[in-house]
Amino acid sequence: TATQMIEKTITALNPLNNRNIQVPLGAILIIQSEERMCTLRLSNGEQYLYPKRLKYAEADFIKHDFIRINNQTIVNCKAVKQFASTTNARIEITLSDGSTYFISRHYINDFRRSLS
């Protein structure tokens, strides 16, 4: 029998109605620091809140193909479509929705390791 892939979800908060929602990890493009919480931005443009600081959220996402790229941002490695070197030894990445982000020098080695 074929084993069924059950996609892992994470519990997030819908800011429009303050209700919890199960968000599939694969749908999340980016996690950004927002004061004492994080904003999850999905591939369909929806945004939800994740009730942890980024440094604690990082531990939840890092084992699921997410990587920290700067002090405010964690991205889904599977959503990275291209990347290019820029000035000041930084790398600019483009995600599947066309948005672009910079990887700070501090996180470049982690990013390179994630690609290998």
Question: What order do the helices and strands come in, and which of them pair?
Answer:
Elements: E1 9-14, E2 19-24, E3 28-34, E4 37-42, E5 47-50, H1 54-61, E6 66-70, E7 73-76, E8 80-85, E9 91-95, E10 100-103, H2 108-115
How do the strands of the widest beta sheet line up side by side? 5-4-3-7-6
Give the strand tally. 10
Unreliable residue stretches? none
| Rg, alpha carbons | 15 Å
Mean pLDDT: 91
Shape: globular
Amino- and carboxy-terminal Cα gap: 32 Å
Strand content: over 45%
Oligomer: single chain
Summarize the helix and strand pattern as letters.
EEEEEHEEEEEH
Main structural class: mainly beta
Count of discrete alpha- or pi-helical segments spanning 4 or more residues: 2
Largest sheet: 5 strands, antiparallel
Fraction of residues in helices?
10-25%
Task: Walk me through this protein's architecture.
The protein has 116 residues and is mostly beta strands. The chain has two helices and ten strands. The strands form three sheets. Strands 5-4-3-7-6 form a five-stranded antiparallel sheet. The chain has a three-stranded antiparallel sheet with strand order 8-9-10, with no helix packed on it. The protein has a two-stranded antiparallel ribbon with strand order 1-2. A hairpin with a 4-residue loop joins strand 4 and strand 5. The chain is globular. The mean pLDDT is 91.
Compact description:
14% of the residues lie in helices and 46% in strands. With 116 residues, the chain is mainly β.
What labels describe this entry?
116 residues, mainly beta, three-stranded antiparallel beta sheet, 2 helices, 14% helix, globular
